[in-house]
Amino acid sequence: MELEKYRLYSEAARGIRKAPLVFRGARVFMAHTGEFVQGNVAVADGIILGVGDYSGEEEIDLTGKYLCPGFIDSHLHLESTLVTPGELIRQAACCGTTTFIVDPHESANVSGSDGIDYILKQTEDAPANVFVMMPSCVPATHVDDNGCTLTAGRMKSYVEHPRVLGLGEVMDAASVINGSVSMHEKLALFEKRVKDGHAPFLSPGDLAAYALAGISTDHECVDYEYAMAECRNGMYVLIREGSAARNLEAIVSGIVSSRTDTSFFCFCTDDKHIEEIKREGHINYNIKRAVQLGLPVEKALKMATIQAARCYGLSGLGAVAPGYQADLVVLDDLEELNVLEVYHKGRRILPDEKAGIAACPPGLKNTVHLKNFSMERLKLRHEGGRAHVIRMIQGQIVTEDLYEEVPFQETEGERLFVPEGDYLKIAAVERHKGTGKTGTGIVKGFGLKGGAVASSVSHDSHNLIVIGDNDRDMYLAVQELARTQGGYTLVENGRVYETLPLPVMGLMSDAGYETVNSLLKRMIARAHEMGIPEGFDPFITLSFMALPVIPEIRITPRGVYLAKEDRILETPFEQKKAE
Fold first, then answer.
1. Alpha-carbon distance 275 to 517, whole Å?
2. Which residue in 49, 247, 355, 486 has a CA-CA distance of 20 to 30 Å to 404?
């Protein structure tokens, strides 16, 4: 800060002159000490000068209200909200989230560095602080069929970018632990920077080796016990509450019952639909839900603010204190925690102000390339005996590998698996290079009757994924996504019920969040009417069934994949290994 400016700020901080802006009369949350104090907050040029007995040239009366630092989402994928980045930022910012730690690996898996550049450009003028973690696993594993490969060499040009904080979630834990050269080149590139983890269910020794590599966060904890194991290894736990993965209750309940120190816990959404953000909120929802579970509000607010800022080295964010950026949230009380107003750099974010939708480069559209795909590729020959079945679990993205007898039918001399009862068919179709690869498997727990659901959002390689109770509707759903160049579609009894086109890399819509929200709400409601349990988000849950870094069993264009054994089954009827 230049000396003349500091002198002016100093005089205002000491009460010698009026501050340009003062928030008056609120109970202010002091993140450093975890307490509320009555006072006025002085601001100049988007910087906080002090908290005390101030008067200002402009004053905003907050008598009877609470003033907190802006909330921080410690890990999210903008693409998973289905709208363009600027729209998501504005909607979430109105919920009090003023800082976003973004991992653009969805875009990178489809379009490489062009996808990363798109995210950076689309967020550079957003009314919030948007930082990027460089995608570490593109592709996620050696069994993935994605659109691009991102090596350490290709990452170098981003290392000094002012909004790139470090290395994004390292999903290929085995490459870290076993000392893969290519992986450790990426880790070395960000040696003195934060490195995000993605490490569900590692053994104690493997978790220690993972942390030894310098990985300092993880958002994949689904229970309190594993969260504590990570904290004991010096890692921050980013408690996730999104659309498909809802881990907050399990972890926070453990924290409350055990009276755990929360210093190494933060909040994140990871993947959350715009429709759900509009309905229940963003990080403010995480805070409110944690408080409902018994966590003191002061601890919840620290997790959403200063602790996340410390985790990512954001020294000027996360607190209401001198020299900090004036990102502020006004709350009505400490029970309902309703967000009344939000300020970024001292300027109010207006809830009815719409974000402009910037044009998408032509090269990021028309990314669905199918070749030689036919209904024949959806056939699954029943080879007798039991089969590996993907059991989907409500409120989670982990799956269970069942080994069960499944229904079949003799058709024209072929013995084929046929969906029946709770057993459905699932398929993944390669869509980046037109290879024609199609993997088919059996799934249980999704409940769909009389149709098919399909998506081009299919983590993390984003091939086409479809689930249904008959081949005709599954085939129609895949063809519909080829027609729209990506999206979500719901097919019922031989006709397309509705489609949400996602033409930007097959991941996002540029039609505006109102259109997305309206279509998605109608499609989700109809999917539940068709038998999908309320505990599932039909589309987000489906999108994770292809992610091979999550236990236990997945579907890929190469076939059914067993995550713990790191192998593709030649057929789902392959004999199960002895436990």
1. 5
2. 247
Residue 274 above 90 pLDDT?
no
Q: Are 140 and 458 in contact (CB under 8 A)?
A: no
Tokens encoding 334: 């400490």
Q: Exposure of 467 by Cβ count < 10 A (0-12 exposed, 13-18 middle, 19+ buried)?
A: buried
Q: In angstroms, rounded to a whole number, what is the distance separating the alpha carbons of residues 132 and 410? A: 53
Q: What is the mean pLDDT of residues 525-539?
A: 95
Nearest to 318 by CA among 96, 160, 127: 96
Sign of the alpha-carbon torsion through 442, 448, 450, 452: negative
pLDDT surpasses 80 at 445: yes
Q: Within the chain, what is the greatest distance between any pair of CA atoms?
A: 93
Closest CA to 103 of 245, 232, 182, 219: 219
Task: Quickly tell me which residue has 């501050």 as its tokens.
Answer: 19
**In a 3-state reduction of DSSP, which class is residue 347?**
strand
Residues 6+ apart with CB under 8 A from 45: 5, 20, 346
Q: In the structure encoding, which two tokens stand for residue 427, read together?
A: 């398929």
Q: Rounded to whole angstroms, what are the CA distances from 346 to 13, 326, 343?
A: 16, 5, 5
pLDDT (tens digit, 9 = 90+) per residue, 1-35?
Answer: 899 999 999 999 999 999 999 999 999 999 999 99
Helix, strand, coil shares, percent, the chain, to 5: 30, 30, 40
Tell me the two tokens of residue 144. Answer: 């993935």
- What mean pLDDT value characterizes the chain? 95
Report how far residue 504's alpha carbon sits from residue 521's, in angstroms, rounded to the nearest whole number. Answer: 20
Please classify residue 322 by burial: count the beta carbons closer than 10 Å to its beta carbon, then call 0-12 exposed, 13-18 middle and 19+ buried: middle
- How is 40-95 classified by DSSP, letter by letter? EEEEETTEEEEEES--EEEEEE-TT-EEEEPEEEEEE-GGGGSB-HHHHHHHHHTT
Distance, in Å, from the CA atom of 247 to the CA atom of 225, rounded to the nearest integer, reads 12
User: What pTM value is reported for the model?
Assistant: 0.91
